[in-house]
Model the fold of this input.
Amino acid sequence: MAKKDVIIPLVPAALSALLLAGGVTVFSACEQRADGSWMHCHQCQNMVAGNAVGLIALYGASSLVKNKPARLALLALAVIASVVVFFIPGGICPLCAMKTMRCHTVFQPFVRIMSVLVAGSGIGALVASWKKDAKPSA
Done:
């Protein structure tokens, strides 16, 4: 396998790692309450973090697979999962009621921007894998 064939799927994997790191640190959802309990949005943060780990695994595995149909299937699944991550904060998982809270102003925009970047780079990796070894028409 050429070095380019391994590096291209690693771009969305690296962006997924940034989604994971940023989503649980700098761009995290609301902080813990004074009584030690967590807000609703913390579950969204955990869901995004879990999905980011899954995206890292899917994109990373696709860079190692040499079988073209299996690689395309992994990339397609990862792109679909990337699109699902876009809808987690505020859609699939409810955020806090006040629109001025950190989960609405910091966490949700970060997740949406990063998921678009991950999905876009995943589509690029999918197209690159699709075109690789394509036979030119006569």
Notes: The two ends are 26 Å apart (CA to CA). The chain is about 70% helix and 0% strand.
